[in-house]
Design goal:
The chain has a single domain, classed as 3-Layer(bab) Sandwich (minor pseudopilin epsh fold). The strands form two sheets. A five-stranded antiparallel beta sheet has the order 4-6-7-8-9. Strands 3-2-1-5 form a four-stranded antiparallel beta sheet, covered by helices on one side. The chain contains two helices and nine strands; from the N terminus they run H-E-E-E-E-E-E-E-E-H-E. It is about 15% helix and about 35% strand.
């Protein structure tokens, strides 16, 4: 997931065209796709492993979108949480996206993933 976001960010800078990443949080399995302002793909479309669920508090309506500008920055911010749907493991991973320069950090998530507000209030402990 983080690799797809970083690839979209790099492509926006490399091609000098904004790139919009769509997180298919309601797809089964979840997907990641991205297109630039010309309608061309910015990343290799990805499908997460079966059994993985993705939740996010980015762009609270519909499928979350992250828009990287030609400098790699974004006005979007929030968390993306990945976890096993069947709770076979309690481990939850997260990616935190900062607005402005588009800084991304990943770590472990402790909190519920039931709703947008749960993710907003949940803790994402990242390493430096």
């Amino acid at each position: 997931m983080r690799g797809a976001l970083q690839q979209a960010q790099r492509e926006a800078m490399r091609k000098s065209k904004p790139c919009t990443v769509t997180l298919g949080t309601s797809d089964n399995p979840p997907t990641v796709s991205a297109i630039n302002s010309s309608g061309d793909s910015c990343v290799i479309n990805r499908e997460l492993q079966n059994g993985v669920e993705m939740s996010s508090n980015i762009d609270g309506s519909g499928s979350p979108e992250i828009k990287f500008n030609i400098r790699g920055g974004t006005g979007d911010r929030g968390k993306i949480v990945l976890h096993m749907a069947d709770a076979s493991t309690q481990e939850k991973k997260c990616i935190v996206l900062s607005s402005g320069i588009g800084l991304m950090r990943s770590g472990n998530y402790s909190g519920n993933t039931d709703s947008y507000s749960d993710i907003t209030n949940g803790e994402c402990t990242t390493s430096r």
